[in-house]
Amino acid sequence: MLSDGIPGGCATSAVIAAGALSLSFRRTVVSLRLPTPRLSPPPLRRHLPIHALALKRNPKRLKYSAPRFFKNGERMVYVEMDTGADSWKLEPVIKVIKEGGVGVIPTDTVYAMVCDLKSHSSIERLRRIKEEDSKPLSILCRSFQDIDTYTTGFPRGNAQGQPNIFRAVKHCLPGPYTFILPASKQLPKQCIKPGMAAKHATRKHVGVRIPDDSICQAILQNLDAPLVCTSVKWPEKDQWMLDPVIIADTYEPEGLDFVVDGGVRVADPSTVVDMTGAYPKVIRQGKGPRLDWMVVEGEDTAAQEELPFLQAA
Protein backbone atom coordinates (compact mmCIF):
# COMPACT_ATOMS: atom_id res chain seq x y z
CA MET A 1 0.00 0.00 0.00
CA LEU A 2 2.76 2.30 0.92
CA SER A 3 4.76 1.38 -2.15
CA ASP A 4 1.71 1.95 -4.39
CA GLY A 5 1.12 5.46 -2.93
CA ILE A 6 4.68 6.62 -3.49
CA PRO A 7 4.63 6.61 -7.31
CA GLY A 8 1.15 8.15 -7.30
CA GLY A 9 2.37 10.80 -4.87
CA CYS A 10 5.38 11.45 -7.04
CA ALA A 11 3.17 11.85 -10.07
CA THR A 12 0.90 14.18 -8.20
CA SER A 13 3.87 16.16 -6.95
CA ALA A 14 5.25 16.33 -10.46
CA VAL A 15 1.99 17.69 -11.81
CA ILE A 16 1.76 20.26 -9.04
CA ALA A 17 5.39 21.25 -9.58
CA ALA A 18 4.84 21.57 -13.32
CA GLY A 19 1.78 23.71 -12.72
CA ALA A 20 3.67 25.89 -10.27
CA LEU A 21 6.56 26.20 -12.69
CA SER A 22 4.16 27.15 -15.47
CA LEU A 23 2.43 29.70 -13.24
CA SER A 24 5.75 31.07 -12.03
CA PHE A 25 6.94 31.47 -15.64
CA ARG A 26 3.81 33.32 -16.62
CA ARG A 27 4.12 35.60 -13.63
CA THR A 28 7.72 36.22 -14.54
CA VAL A 29 6.76 37.10 -18.09
CA VAL A 30 3.97 39.37 -16.90
CA SER A 31 6.28 41.10 -14.44
CA LEU A 32 8.82 41.76 -17.22
CA ARG A 33 6.24 43.16 -19.60
CA LEU A 34 7.18 46.75 -20.47
CA PRO A 35 4.53 49.49 -20.43
CA THR A 36 3.33 50.88 -23.72
CA PRO A 37 5.52 53.86 -24.60
CA ARG A 38 3.77 57.23 -24.52
CA LEU A 39 4.71 60.35 -26.39
CA SER A 40 5.84 62.91 -23.86
CA PRO A 41 5.28 66.64 -24.47
CA PRO A 42 8.30 68.66 -25.55
CA PRO A 43 10.44 69.71 -22.59
CA LEU A 44 9.94 73.21 -21.32
CA ARG A 45 12.82 75.65 -21.59
CA ARG A 46 14.72 75.67 -18.35
CA HIS A 47 15.71 78.96 -16.84
CA LEU A 48 19.40 79.11 -16.23
CA PRO A 49 20.49 80.35 -12.79
CA ILE A 50 22.38 83.62 -12.73
CA HIS A 51 25.33 82.86 -10.53
CA ALA A 52 27.23 86.09 -11.11
CA LEU A 53 24.37 88.37 -10.12
CA ALA A 54 22.85 86.41 -7.25
CA LEU A 55 19.52 87.79 -8.46
CA LYS A 56 16.42 86.29 -6.88
CA ARG A 57 13.95 85.42 -9.62
CA ASN A 58 10.32 86.38 -9.26
CA PRO A 59 7.97 83.36 -9.73
CA LYS A 60 5.75 85.59 -11.86
CA ARG A 61 8.65 86.20 -14.24
CA LEU A 62 9.32 82.46 -14.45
CA LYS A 63 5.70 81.76 -15.32
CA TYR A 64 5.21 84.42 -17.94
CA SER A 65 8.69 84.65 -19.46
CA ALA A 66 8.74 84.74 -23.26
CA PRO A 67 9.76 81.70 -25.33
CA ARG A 68 13.14 81.75 -27.01
CA PHE A 69 13.32 82.90 -30.63
CA PHE A 70 16.15 80.44 -31.27
CA LYS A 71 15.93 76.67 -31.16
CA ASN A 72 16.98 74.73 -28.07
CA GLY A 73 20.72 74.68 -27.59
CA GLU A 74 21.39 77.88 -29.56
CA ARG A 75 22.76 80.87 -27.74
CA MET A 76 21.83 84.50 -28.14
CA VAL A 77 23.68 86.70 -30.62
CA TYR A 78 26.23 88.90 -28.83
CA VAL A 79 28.12 91.51 -30.86
CA GLU A 80 30.79 93.87 -29.50
CA MET A 81 31.04 97.25 -31.25
CA ASP A 82 33.21 100.31 -30.73
CA THR A 83 31.54 102.50 -33.35
CA GLY A 84 29.15 102.07 -36.23
CA ALA A 85 32.07 101.95 -38.67
CA ASP A 86 32.26 98.14 -38.46
CA SER A 87 28.66 97.80 -39.60
CA TRP A 88 29.35 94.35 -41.11
CA LYS A 89 29.40 92.98 -37.55
CA LEU A 90 25.75 93.95 -37.22
CA GLU A 91 24.53 91.74 -40.09
CA PRO A 92 23.43 88.84 -37.83
CA VAL A 93 21.65 91.29 -35.52
CA ILE A 94 19.79 92.92 -38.41
CA LYS A 95 18.82 89.46 -39.69
CA VAL A 96 17.42 88.47 -36.30
CA ILE A 97 15.44 91.72 -36.02
CA LYS A 98 13.86 91.21 -39.44
CA GLU A 99 12.94 87.64 -38.47
CA GLY A 100 11.13 88.79 -35.32
CA GLY A 101 13.82 88.78 -32.65
CA VAL A 102 13.92 90.95 -29.54
CA GLY A 103 17.21 92.35 -28.25
CA VAL A 104 19.18 95.20 -26.72
CA ILE A 105 21.15 97.92 -28.51
CA PRO A 106 22.99 101.06 -27.35
CA THR A 107 21.65 104.56 -27.91
CA ASP A 108 23.09 107.99 -27.21
CA THR A 109 21.72 107.71 -23.66
CA VAL A 110 21.08 104.30 -22.06
CA TYR A 111 20.54 100.83 -23.51
CA ALA A 112 17.20 100.08 -25.19
CA MET A 113 15.30 96.83 -25.65
CA VAL A 114 14.03 96.82 -29.23
CA CYS A 115 12.12 94.90 -31.88
CA ASP A 116 10.72 95.45 -35.38
CA LEU A 117 7.78 97.88 -35.38
CA LYS A 118 6.05 95.88 -38.14
CA SER A 119 6.09 92.60 -36.18
CA HIS A 120 3.15 92.56 -33.78
CA SER A 121 4.23 89.24 -32.24
CA SER A 122 7.68 90.70 -31.55
CA ILE A 123 6.12 93.65 -29.74
CA GLU A 124 4.16 91.25 -27.54
CA ARG A 125 7.36 89.26 -26.80
CA LEU A 126 9.16 92.47 -25.88
CA ARG A 127 6.41 93.30 -23.40
CA ARG A 128 6.59 89.83 -21.82
CA ILE A 129 10.37 89.91 -21.52
CA LYS A 130 10.40 93.41 -20.03
CA GLU A 131 7.04 93.07 -18.24
CA GLU A 132 5.84 96.33 -19.80
CA ASP A 133 2.16 95.39 -19.73
CA SER A 134 0.64 98.82 -19.27
CA LYS A 135 3.18 101.42 -20.35
CA PRO A 136 3.15 102.77 -23.94
CA LEU A 137 6.29 102.00 -25.91
CA SER A 138 8.45 104.49 -27.81
CA ILE A 139 9.95 104.21 -31.29
CA LEU A 140 13.49 104.79 -32.57
CA CYS A 141 13.22 106.53 -35.93
CA ARG A 142 15.63 106.72 -38.85
CA SER A 143 14.59 110.22 -39.93
CA PHE A 144 11.90 112.89 -39.70
CA GLN A 145 10.07 111.00 -42.44
CA ASP A 146 9.47 108.14 -39.99
CA ILE A 147 8.17 110.61 -37.43
CA ASP A 148 5.75 112.06 -39.99
CA THR A 149 4.58 108.53 -40.89
CA TYR A 150 3.81 107.20 -37.42
CA THR A 151 2.74 110.47 -35.78
CA THR A 152 1.03 113.66 -36.87
CA GLY A 153 4.47 115.25 -36.98
CA PHE A 154 5.80 118.53 -35.67
CA PRO A 155 3.77 121.63 -36.58
CA ARG A 156 5.37 123.58 -39.43
CA GLY A 157 3.48 126.81 -38.76
CA ASN A 158 0.70 128.42 -40.77
CA ALA A 159 -0.86 131.75 -41.61
CA GLN A 160 -3.23 131.46 -38.65
CA GLY A 161 -0.30 131.91 -36.26
CA GLN A 162 0.54 128.29 -35.47
CA PRO A 163 4.20 128.21 -34.35
CA ASN A 164 6.81 126.48 -36.50
CA ILE A 165 7.98 123.97 -33.93
CA PHE A 166 9.66 121.84 -36.58
CA ARG A 167 12.20 124.60 -37.22
CA ALA A 168 13.25 124.47 -33.56
CA VAL A 169 13.18 120.68 -33.20
CA LYS A 170 15.31 119.90 -36.23
CA HIS A 171 18.27 121.56 -34.49
CA CYS A 172 18.21 119.06 -31.59
CA LEU A 173 17.58 115.84 -33.52
CA PRO A 174 19.41 113.52 -33.76
CA GLY A 175 19.97 113.97 -30.06
CA PRO A 176 19.12 112.81 -26.52
CA TYR A 177 15.46 113.80 -26.62
CA THR A 178 12.18 111.89 -26.60
CA PHE A 179 9.31 113.92 -28.06
CA ILE A 180 5.74 112.87 -27.30
CA LEU A 181 3.48 113.42 -30.31
CA PRO A 182 -0.06 112.41 -31.33
CA ALA A 183 0.10 108.99 -32.99
CA SER A 184 -1.13 108.33 -36.53
CA LYS A 185 -3.12 105.32 -37.79
CA GLN A 186 0.08 103.73 -39.08
CA LEU A 187 1.35 103.15 -35.54
CA PRO A 188 0.59 99.56 -34.40
CA LYS A 189 -1.85 99.50 -31.51
CA GLN A 190 0.44 97.01 -29.74
CA CYS A 191 2.68 100.01 -28.98
CA ILE A 192 -0.14 101.45 -26.88
CA LYS A 193 -1.73 98.39 -25.21
CA PRO A 194 -0.72 94.72 -24.90
CA GLY A 195 -2.54 91.58 -26.08
CA MET A 196 -6.26 91.65 -26.78
CA ALA A 197 -6.51 95.11 -25.24
CA ALA A 198 -4.63 96.47 -28.27
CA LYS A 199 -7.61 95.65 -30.51
CA HIS A 200 -9.75 98.23 -28.73
CA ALA A 201 -6.99 100.67 -27.83
CA THR A 202 -7.10 104.25 -29.03
CA ARG A 203 -3.96 105.58 -30.63
CA LYS A 204 -3.25 108.71 -28.62
CA HIS A 205 0.39 109.61 -28.14
CA VAL A 206 3.77 108.02 -28.71
CA GLY A 207 7.33 108.95 -27.83
CA VAL A 208 9.72 109.31 -30.78
CA ARG A 209 13.52 109.41 -30.83
CA ILE A 210 16.31 109.87 -33.38
CA PRO A 211 19.38 108.86 -31.35
CA ASP A 212 22.73 110.48 -32.06
CA ASP A 213 24.63 107.19 -31.81
CA SER A 214 26.59 105.65 -34.69
CA ILE A 215 25.85 102.05 -33.70
CA CYS A 216 22.14 102.68 -33.30
CA GLN A 217 21.99 104.58 -36.60
CA ALA A 218 23.89 101.79 -38.41
CA ILE A 219 21.20 99.34 -37.29
CA LEU A 220 18.27 101.64 -38.13
CA GLN A 221 19.54 102.48 -41.61
CA ASN A 222 19.55 98.78 -42.52
CA LEU A 223 15.93 98.19 -41.52
CA ASP A 224 12.65 98.74 -43.33
CA ALA A 225 10.91 100.42 -40.40
CA PRO A 226 11.64 102.07 -37.04
CA LEU A 227 12.29 100.03 -33.91
CA VAL A 228 9.88 99.79 -31.00
CA CYS A 229 11.86 100.41 -27.83
CA THR A 230 11.84 100.64 -24.07
CA SER A 231 14.71 101.38 -21.70
CA VAL A 232 16.47 98.45 -20.01
CA LYS A 233 16.04 98.38 -16.25
CA TRP A 234 16.66 95.92 -13.46
CA PRO A 235 13.74 93.53 -12.96
CA GLU A 236 11.44 94.96 -10.30
CA LYS A 237 13.68 98.01 -9.87
CA ASP A 238 13.38 101.47 -11.34
CA GLN A 239 17.09 101.63 -12.15
CA TRP A 240 18.77 101.52 -15.54
CA MET A 241 21.03 98.64 -16.46
CA LEU A 242 24.21 100.07 -17.97
CA ASP A 243 26.52 97.07 -18.46
CA PRO A 244 25.67 94.99 -21.58
CA VAL A 245 27.26 91.85 -20.12
CA ILE A 246 24.98 91.99 -17.08
CA ILE A 247 22.01 92.75 -19.34
CA ALA A 248 22.75 89.62 -21.37
CA ASP A 249 23.13 87.44 -18.26
CA THR A 250 19.89 88.77 -16.80
CA TYR A 251 17.57 88.75 -19.81
CA GLU A 252 18.84 85.85 -21.94
CA PRO A 253 17.01 83.33 -19.70
CA GLU A 254 13.88 85.47 -20.14
CA GLY A 255 13.97 85.07 -23.92
CA LEU A 256 16.26 87.84 -25.17
CA ASP A 257 17.67 87.04 -28.63
CA PHE A 258 20.60 89.43 -29.08
CA VAL A 259 22.72 92.10 -27.41
CA VAL A 260 24.89 94.71 -29.11
CA ASP A 261 27.68 95.66 -26.73
CA GLY A 262 28.59 99.33 -27.15
CA GLY A 263 30.35 99.63 -23.81
CA VAL A 264 29.15 100.59 -20.36
CA ARG A 265 26.78 103.56 -20.39
CA VAL A 266 26.09 106.33 -17.87
CA ALA A 267 22.74 106.59 -16.09
CA ASP A 268 21.67 109.63 -18.09
CA PRO A 269 18.39 109.02 -19.96
CA SER A 270 16.84 111.16 -22.66
CA THR A 271 14.99 114.38 -21.90
CA VAL A 272 11.26 113.84 -22.45
CA VAL A 273 9.31 116.71 -23.99
CA ASP A 274 5.52 116.62 -24.31
CA MET A 275 4.48 118.23 -27.60
CA THR A 276 0.74 117.54 -27.31
CA GLY A 277 -0.18 120.67 -25.38
CA ALA A 278 -0.13 124.36 -26.15
CA TYR A 279 3.60 124.57 -25.40
CA PRO A 280 6.48 122.04 -25.52
CA LYS A 281 6.72 120.94 -21.89
CA VAL A 282 9.65 119.11 -20.29
CA ILE A 283 8.25 116.24 -18.21
CA ARG A 284 11.62 114.58 -17.51
CA GLN A 285 14.94 116.35 -17.51
CA GLY A 286 17.68 114.10 -18.79
CA LYS A 287 20.81 114.27 -20.92
CA GLY A 288 19.36 116.76 -23.39
CA PRO A 289 19.52 120.33 -22.06
CA ARG A 290 16.34 122.31 -21.71
CA LEU A 291 16.23 124.75 -24.62
CA ASP A 292 14.82 128.25 -24.45
CA TRP A 293 11.66 127.26 -26.38
CA MET A 294 10.76 124.56 -23.84
CA VAL A 295 8.76 125.13 -20.68
CA VAL A 296 8.49 123.23 -17.42
CA GLU A 297 5.38 122.53 -15.41
CA GLY A 298 4.45 125.43 -13.18
CA GLU A 299 6.34 128.03 -15.21
CA ASP A 300 4.82 131.49 -15.45
CA THR A 301 2.28 131.77 -18.30
CA ALA A 302 3.56 135.21 -19.27
CA ALA A 303 7.02 133.75 -19.80
CA GLN A 304 5.53 131.02 -22.02
CA GLU A 305 3.97 133.60 -24.32
CA GLU A 306 7.41 135.04 -25.02
CA LEU A 307 8.98 131.80 -26.25
CA PRO A 308 11.30 132.50 -29.21
CA PHE A 309 9.75 129.96 -31.60
CA LEU A 310 6.38 131.68 -31.18
CA GLN A 311 7.87 135.00 -32.29
CA ALA A 312 9.66 133.30 -35.21
CA ALA A 313 6.49 131.67 -36.52
Rg, rounded, reads 32 Å
Order of helices and strands: HHEHEEHEHHEEHEHEEEEHH
State the end-to-end distance.
137 Å
Spatial strand arrangement across the major sheet = 1-8-2-3-7-4-6-5-9-10-11
Tell me how many strands there are.
11
Q: Would you mind describing this structure in some detail?
A:
The protein is α/β, with parallel strands linked by helices. It contains ten helices and eleven strands. An eleven-stranded mixed sheet has the order 1-8-2-3-7-4-6-5-9-10-11, with helices on both faces. Strand 9 and strand 10 form a beta hairpin. It starts with a helix and ends with a helix. One of its GO terms (molecular function) is double-stranded RNA binding. This is Threonylcarbamoyl-AMP synthase.
List keywords for this structure.
313 residues, alpha/beta, DHBP synthase, 10 helices, disordered C terminus, Sua5-like_dom, double-stranded RNA binding
Topology:
Layout: H1 2-32, H2 59-64, E1 77-80, H3 91-98, E2 103-105, E3 112-116, H4 120-130, E4 138-140, H5 144-150, H6 165-169, E5 177-182, E6 205-209, H7 214-220, E7 227-231, H8 244-251, E8 258-261, E9 271-274, E10 281-284, E11 295-296, H9 301-304, H10 308-311
Parallel strand pairs: 1-8, 2-8, 4-6, 5-9, 10-11
Antiparallel strand pairs: 2-3, 3-7, 4-7, 5-6, 9-10
